[in-house]
Amino acid sequence: MYHLLLVCLGGAIGAMARFFLSGFVARRVGETFPWGTMVVNVSGAFAIGVVAHAVARDSMPAIWAFAATGSLGCYTTVSSFSLQTLALAREGEWLRAGGNVLLSVFLSLGGVTLGFAAGSLLIGSGAP
Amino acid sequence: MSNPRKLRSGGTDTAAAEHAARLISWRKTNEAVRIYATVAAGSMIGGVLRALASLTSTALWGNGFPFGTLLVNIVGSFLIGFYATLTGPDGRVFASPLQRQFFMTGFCGGLTTFSAFSLETLTLAQSGKLMAAALNIAISVVTWLAAVWLGHILAVRLNRLRGSRQ
């Protein structure tokens, strides 16, 4: 129950950060391509890579619940990604739809890998 | 030559404009606070459901494959596709912008997660389960997109039923 509260708290922060950043990027770059969602998802993947290296999930469940499950879980989103990809496809923008899928997946996986590597550089051998 | 009447009226105009600007900026702040609070509230519910799904999945099927994350991402994609079309411009159901923010940006955004998907794929790959990692990517992307499309199509059908608003 205590951990679910931490998920709630982290989730509120993460979701507001997502709302702010995706809106900010969309207003700056325009909304022909969902850059806002992508920036959020790639940065969130990088961050969870760092967290995964820094926080031992089993021995620090409270921090994990707050930072990983709550904050970063609610910060990143699949639903907006899916909806925006569908919208591009429905407009006949197949190249952009496909590009969004490939870029999102590759950049996010690259982000989490880099984050994990950055974690080992910053923190050393990592949490046990 | 300065005209005192014009000056005075100009002064009043400035004061009125300042007052109006303050009122508008206060309203904007108030509106922003409401939107952020709404998004946060929806996301809290979605996030807790996701955490519970993840726990249940681990309890039922262990840590071999991240079914919990896959499930919430499919459900969230379906729901956002369904809701967006059902409450959209040609939709059958009216929803206020705040209600849409609550459900789509908040609830569905909190329920689904790209970060856990990325991390779990990396973990599978790091533990040598390259096949499972590749499968997770392929199955996830295909099922997310199928789910959002299915939700959308279902809502389009509902919108076309007799007895809708139009």
Q: Overview of this structure, please?
A:
Chain A is an all-alpha fold and 128 residues long. Chain A has one domain. Chain A is globular and about 50 Å long. The two termini of chain A are 26 Å apart. With 166 residues, chain B is mainly α. Chain B has one domain. Chain B contains five helices and no strands. Classes of the chains: A mainly alpha (128), B mainly alpha (166). Chains A and B meet through helix 1, helix 2, helix 3, helix 4 and helix 5 of A and helix 1, helix 2, helix 3, helix 4 and helix 5 of B.
DSSP strand count of chain A: 0
Low-confidence stretches of chain A: none
The gross shape of chain A turns out to be: globular
Distance between the termini of chain B: 63 Å
- Considering DSSP H and I runs of 4 or more, what fraction of the residues of chain B is helical? over 70%
List keywords for this structure.
heterodimer, A: 128 residues, mainly alpha, 82% helix, globular, B: 166 residues, transmembrane (chain B)
Write the layout of secondary structure elements.
The complex is a heterodimer of chains A (128) and B (166).
Chain A lengths: L1 H28 L5 H20 L6 H15 L3 H12 L3 H30 L5
Helix pairs in contact in A: 1-2, 1-3, 2-3, 2-5, 4-5
Chain B lengths: L3 H58 L5 H20 L10 H15 L2 H13 L3 H31 L6
Helix pairs in contact in B: 1-2, 1-3, 2-3, 2-5, 4-5
Short description:
By secondary structure, chain A is mainly alpha-helical. Helix content of chain A is 82%, strand content 0%.
